[in-house]
Design a protein that fits this description.
The chain is of the alpha+beta class. It starts with a strand and ends with a helix. It is globular and about 75 Å long. The protein has helices at about 55-60, 65-70, 75-85, 100-110, 130-140, 160, 170-185, 190-195, 200-210, 260-265, 300-310, 315-340, 355-365, 370-375, 380-395, 400-415, 425-440, 445-465, and strands spanning about 5-10, 20-30, 35-40, 90-95, 125-130, 215-220, 225-235, 240-245, 270-275, 285.
Length: about 475
């Protein structure tokens, strides 16, 4: 019998590298949606983080919650990590989680010297309930009622979809997300089953190679779109599934030279569709696409013939692989030219720690406080040494040598007091947000009082670090 962990996080902002978690709720359920266990935690603001004002307002996080909780950010992560370990293996389901919660937790574990890939290894798999309900609505419109956008597209924001009280709280949002998943399970079970089959990269890789053709779903411009595709190759760099959109006749392309083919592949609508198999996509039976244009005008014999042409065109496949690798290299060089040096918090995807480094990371968490200090210089990766210093600064600063204590404090000061354009909230940016909200809320005494409390709180952080 499979286990399912439904969960939601509330955070100080949208930067998975630099913001922090303020609240998390996890509900362990069986395959009948019955709760077996749960974990609900709040923590005080992580040291050295300036929250985004809009995030505080949306999540209704008070100053008292930011500074008064006895649980630290690191302690919250320890409890979450050990709980997921205890509930492993499980499917982990959140609403919009693949793009946000999974990435956020992964980077927080990384910065806490824990295995960042706990949620997708050791039998754990991930499902995004938002992807499920979008797919279910596409193929069965009456599965759930939604509001519509100005362009007539269904709106899937959880608070609008379910209309629940206390929206943007970790527990109520988890409860409502689980109800949405149950709707998919009961009213559109093919989507539920399909999502279970693609909840991990190995599972999804096997599926795309096994199925002759399938439906790939892509969401852009506020609308979910369906494509009938055939898996052709794996991306030579990123290992994504590169699929041929079967609306196109490959016979028109297989004899092209490299230059013209590269140009053709860059045009829209795309000839190749990308399935990011590590992102738990929902892939459906080809029958759903064959009921829609343009695929309903293409006979099964023609579709099968196109697949046969592709499979025989081995040199064409090699040429596409060469072009994709070339494009990836061009994009990498362009990105490197425009992005400054990564900060330690952003280095999660720069490589994997060696077994020896992983052993030191585990040892760090079991060692006594004074021994943790001695382990700082033992790390071979610079970011792990940095995270160890930050951990001790936040959890047990009195054990740090004065030189390291001052080094960490100066680093925090440099970040939060920066006036540069950066991808995290600084003190000056927070004050700008406060001024903007005050201008909007001049006739709302309750809101103005709350803004004053937020302002005073950040001023106290500024005062602590301005002399560092």
């Amino acid at each position: 019998m499979s286990q399912f962990i439904y969960y939601d996080t509330e955070t100080t902002g949208s930067s998975s590298a630099f913001d922090s978690i303020t609240e998390i709720f996890l509900s362990l359920c069986n395959d009948k949606f019955q709760e077996l266990d749960k974990l609900h935690l709040r923590c005080r603001l992580k040291e050295g983080v300036i929250p985004n004002l809009n995030a505080l307002i949306i999540t209704k996080t008070s100053v008292a919650q930011l500074k008064g909780n006895n649980l630290s950010h690191a302690q919250l992560l320890h409890q979450v990590y050990s709980t997921i370990q205890r509930w492993t293996p499980s499917y982990l389901l959140g609403y919009g989680s693949i793009q946000f919660d999974v990435e956020f937790l992964r980077k927080k574990f990384f910065q806490n010297l824990q295995d960042p890939y706990l949620m997708n290894t050791k039998g754990n798999k991930n499902i995004d309930i938002l992807s499920q309900i979008r797919a279910a609505k596409l193929i069965k419109d009456d599965v759930i009622k939604t509001e519509t956008s100005a362009k007539g597209n269904p709106i899937f924001k959880l608070d609008k979809l379910m209309g629940h009280q206390d929206a943007h709280g970790a527990e109520p949002d988890t409860t409502q997300a689980k109800k949405v998943a149950e709707i998919v399970f009961k009213k559109c079970n093919p989507v539920w089953r399909s999502s279970l089959m693609t909840a991990s990269r190995p599972d999804c890789d096997r599926l795309v190679q096994t199925e002759k053709m399938f439906c790939n779903l892509e969401y852009f411009y506020g609308k979910l779109r369906i494509f009938l595709v055939h898996h052709y190759l794996f991306h030579p760099v990123y290992k994504w599934s590169i699929c041929w959109d079967l609306r196109w006749n490959p016979a028109d392309y297989i004899h092209m030279k490299k230059g013209p083919l590269k140009e053709a592949l860059s045009k829209t609508p795309k000839i190749l569709r990308t399935v990011k198999t590590h992102k738990s996509p929902v892939l459906l039976n080809p029958s759903y696409a064959r009921m829609q244009e343009p695929y309903n005008k293409i006979s099964p014999d023609i579709l099968n013939k196109r697949i046969e042409i592709l499979e025989k065109a081995t040199e064409f496949k090699k040429l596409i692989s060469v072009i994709l690798e070339e494009i990836a290299q061009e994009q990498k060089e362009k990105k490197e030219d425009n992005i400054p040096n990564l900060r330690h918090e952003e280095k999660i995807y720069t490589g994997f720690p060696s077994p020896e480094e992983k052993q030191k990371m585990a040892q760090f968490h079991t060692a006594e406080w004074q021994d943790k200090v001695k382990l700082i210089d033992k790390f071979s990766l610079d970011y792990n040494a940095h995270f160890a210093k930050r951990y001790l600064y936040e959890e047990k600063s009195d054990v740090l040598p004065e030189s390291i204590y001052k080094e960490v404090k100066r680093d925090i000061a440099e970040r939060i007091l920066s006036t540069d354009e950066v991808n995290f909230t600084t003190v000056s940016e927070f004050y700008r947000q406060i001024d903007y909200e005050r201008n909007k809320s001049a006739n709302d005494p309750k809101r103005m009082k709350l803004l004053d409390e937020y302002n005073d709180f950040v001023m106290s952080i500024e005062q602590k670090y301005e002399a560092a």
